[in-house]
């Protein structure tokens, strides 16, 4: 036995693109018409780009100006760091020169002292040997004066090195840090200008609408020279080679279907042809749509992917679906006409030794004609079809030839 769920649904393309705008704009070109086949990336409709083109140009100019600011800030910082390095080297060199000059002065003073002592000795010898010779004394005095002159010269050289150190270039760390801050601000301004350019270019791209899928043009609601509508899509494109069936099931049937369940679809357009498919989506919640008579019963939406789409099927067509929910072999079943309900329980009238026995039964799967009996009856039992309210427990009956049995 096979249990099925039957419903009707509508054909819907798997892939569909609607070109919409949030604000109206002047349509400059509509490149397609209804029924056209389009390829991925093909231009569909173009809006006036005069304003956004100007915005892009301005944004590019702002980026160039910001880049120039970064370049200038980088050059200034490099010059300051170089000057700072030269200043440090000059200071170190001046210190070394001053130290060397001081050493030279000390050495010169020492030499002058030795020379003076020697001159004194010579003068003493000369005086002792040639006491009356005044010329000899004059030489001695001259040597003493020369030694004194050398000592003064050494002191003068030391003073020159100190003057060079005092005239060197000096760049404070604070100035360099300030230049680094200016560079950081320039880079931030460049980043902001680049982002604004991206925004302007994105807005520019939104003026030219292209096909995001290959397919067929289903609707064109835009006209050259007119403002673009905002209530309806400008263009609708769909891939008609892949279709889904969308249907609504009642609560009972929705509880029986499962993902990947097999489905058979038929349509008036296809005649006796049946198209196979499978369930690819089951709504997580039921919905209730109000009607003129009040709220309808809750329904659950399902989506069925067709294995193929025969020629002639179009989006929006109504189709019939048969969902296989269970299949069993070798089961005990009775005709649907044998069952009746009292409260939440199911019963049959079983004929036993010419009398009626009201028997509760448990049900399994079922279809339009038969219902599985999982407990309450045995194979070969006879049951009453279409029991009326006049029948009751223990009533004497005579089975008709060909009457239903389990």
- Radius of gyration from the alpha-carbon trace, in angstroms: 54 Å
SS content category: alpha+beta
Percent helix, as a range, is: 25-40%
How many distinct folded domains?
A: 3
Between the first and last Cα atoms, what is the distance in angstroms?
14 Å
Low-confidence stretches: 110-168
SSE succession: EEEEEHHHEEEEHEEEEEEEEEEEE
Strands across the major sheet, in which order?
A: 1-9-14-11-10-15
Mean pLDDT: 81
Structure, described:
With 406 residues, the chain is of the alpha+beta class. It folds into 3 domains: 145 residues; 87 residues, Elongation Factor Tu (Ef-tu), domain 3 (Beta Barrel); 78 residues, conserved putative lor/sdh protein from methanococcus maripaludis s2 fold (Beta Barrel). Helix content is 37%, strand content 29%. The chain has a 6-stranded antiparallel beta barrel. Strands 16, 17, 18, 19, 20 and 21 form a 6-stranded antiparallel beta sheet that branches. The chain has a 4-stranded antiparallel beta sheet with strand order 2-8-7-4, with no helix packed on it. β18 and β19 form a beta hairpin. α1 runs antiparallel to α2 and α1 packs antiparallel against α3. The longest helix is centred in the N-terminal third of the chain and has 80 residues. The radius of gyration is 54 Å and the shape is elongated. The two termini are 14 Å apart. About 15% of the residues have low confidence.
